[in-house]
Amino acid sequence: MVCLMDVPQHGSASTSKKEQRDYALNAVDEKFTGCSPKLKKEVEEDLIAEVQRLRAENDYLKKECLGCRESTAREKAQVIWKLRHKHKGGLLIDIAGIPRSTYYYSKQFEDPKPDKSAEIKGEIRRIYDESKG
To answer: What is the DSSP-derived secondary structure letter of residue 87?
Structure first.
């Protein structure tokens, strides 16, 4: 019956599919030998720096809400302070367009350091108040 219908014997059909698949894979391998061409190191570094700058600029603009109104230098410094862990500070300062000194000046008021001698000062104040009265 198989001979009359010209149907290949069992196993020969799967072999031809396997051969077709192997042929297709080899054709792809021949066409795309190796990886994509490598960029020069300088070009690659420039592209990475540009992507970092664009990401920082995008995050800055999202936080600042420039469409609302003109921001003050102090508000810009606050936005930079919030984004300082995600992006480089110098990059954010350049994007904001404020002087570096303005950022550091306003930063000292934003996050004051805890007073190490607060306990001692409290004790001195208590003794002073007791002796005065």
So the answer is: S
Tell me the pLDDT of the chain (133 aa) as tens digits.
445 555 555 555 556 777 777 766 666 555 555 556 677 888 888 999 999 999 988 888 887 765 567 778 888 888 888 888 898 888 888 888 888 888 888 877 666 677 788 889 889 989 988 887 5
The count of domains in the chain is 1
Count the helices and strands in the chain (H runs, E runs): 7, 0
Q: Is residue 18 part of a domain?
A: no
4 occurs within a structural domain = no
- Contact status, residue 92 vs residue 60, Cβ threshold 8 Å: yes
Q: Is residue 131 part of a domain?
A: yes
Task: Supply the pTM of this predicted model.
Answer: 0.50
Range of the domain at 69: 47-133
- Whether 70 maps to a domain, the answer reads yes
